């Protein structure tokens, strides 16, 4: 069965142009319209009925897929999406998946039933090929996480560069044995942060020692951060600094250090990632990578609105991160 991409290639135009022709919405030259119609006839392409129905009726509702609501990281992103959508006359529905594929499928049915015009997804696995099929049917934007190898709109920060920067900072303080707390999930951010961490070690002339790696739960829970911190800090040659791929995990590591009688920053430096509100609520305040969370949500919403209105899709946007220096790091 021919796809909209096949029609675009045959006609020598963009997918967005084909979408405009099919939906009779947006500027397209007469020559391009003719090319698209010829390609559709040649390939016997059948435009998606549900997608056309959505664009005609416009439910003015969009879905926001989040893995959980226990991690404070998602709150500002969701606010950015909701505020932006509201200004454009759209309502939002929060779809909490909890890593359950059946729950995710139930929410996706809302798109096929015409109850939503599109979705922002914050919890896509890096190898999930189902997203490609869904994006051919409906406007989809991936926020923070995205599927590798799929030309689907996404917005995030450069997680590799951010993690590499953390290592550069810690080595500038004299740390040479640096621990890493990652996660067992399938998010591209987790993978890129570990790769950036390892690259930073190599560039500093330090070995990538697996004895300095520990892994928390898929949802970055505080308790799993405590366990990962205890695992690293109980070793005979414990790290003098630890980089965690989320602030919640970093706060768990700080609690583990306290439980073991260690003092941050006298005995240990800790760096997190995200800059959630909790990062400044406890002592010591957390050194971390700040993500522009509200802007991530706002940008993803703007990208989704453009898709709904013009059919424009594909490509990635990377927003700027920032290393925030606070009290949890010190010279070794």
From TrEMBL:
Keyword presence, Transcription regulation: yes
Classification via Pfam families: LacI, Peripla_BP_3
Record keywords, A-Z: DNA-binding, Transcription, Transcription regulation
Domain HTH lacI-type: from-to ranges: 2-56
Domain of life: Bacteria
SMART domains: HTH_LACI
GO MF annotations in UniProt: DNA-binding transcription factor activity; transcription cis-regulatory region binding
Transmembrane among keywords: no
InterPro entries, per database record: HTH_LacI, LacI/GalR-like_sensor, Lambda_DNA-bd_dom_sf, Peripla_BP_I
Record Gene3D superfamilies: 3.40.50.2300, lambda repressor-like DNA-binding domains
PROSITE patterns: HTH_LACI_1, HTH_LACI_2
PANTHER family recorded: HTH-TYPE TRANSCRIPTIONAL REGULATOR GALS, LACI-RELATED TRANSCRIPTIONAL REPRESSOR
Protein name: Transcriptional regulator, LacI family
């Amino acid at each position: 069965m021919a796809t909209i991409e096949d029609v675009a290639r045959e006609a020598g135009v963009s997918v967005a142009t084909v979408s405009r022709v099919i939906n009779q919405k947006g500027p397209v030259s007469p020559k391009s319209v003719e090319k698209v119609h010829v390609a559709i006839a040649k390939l016997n392409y059948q435009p998606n009925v549900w997608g056309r129905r959505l664009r005609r009726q416009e439910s003015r509702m969009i879905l926001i897929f989040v893995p959980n609501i226990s991690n404070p990281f998602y709150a500002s992103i969701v606010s950015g999406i909701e505020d932006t959508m509201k200004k454009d006359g759209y309502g939002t529905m929060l779809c909490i998946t909890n890593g359950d594929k059946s729950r995710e499928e139930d929410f996706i049915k809302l798109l096929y039933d015409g109850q939503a015009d599109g979705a922002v997804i914050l919890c896509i696995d890096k190898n999930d090929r189902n997203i490609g099929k869904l994006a051919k049917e409906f406007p989809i934007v991936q926020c923070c996480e995205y599927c590798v190898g799929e030309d689907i709109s996404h917005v995030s920060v450069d997680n590799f560069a951010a993690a590499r920067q953390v290592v550069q900072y810690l080595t500038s303080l004299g740390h040479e044995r640096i621990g890493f707390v990652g996660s067992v999930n399938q998010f591209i951010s987790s993978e890129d942060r570990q790769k950036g961490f390892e690259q930073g070690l190599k560039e500093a002339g330090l070995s990538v020692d697996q004895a300095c790696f520990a892994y928390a739960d898929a949802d970055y829970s505080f308790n799993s951060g405590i366990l990962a911190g205890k695992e690293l800090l109980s070793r005979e040659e414990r790290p003098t600094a630890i980089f965690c791929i989320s602030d919640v995990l970093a706060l768990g590591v700080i609690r583990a250090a306290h439980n073991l009688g260690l003092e941050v920053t006298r005995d240990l430096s800790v760096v997190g990632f995200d800059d959630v509100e909790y990062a400044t609520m406890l002592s010591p305040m957390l050194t971390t990578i700040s993500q522009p969370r509200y802007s991530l949500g706002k940008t993803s919403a703007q990208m989704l609105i453009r898709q709904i209105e013009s059919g424009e899709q594909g490509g990635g946007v990377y927003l700027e991160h920032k290393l925030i220096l606070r009290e949890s790091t010190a010279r070794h």
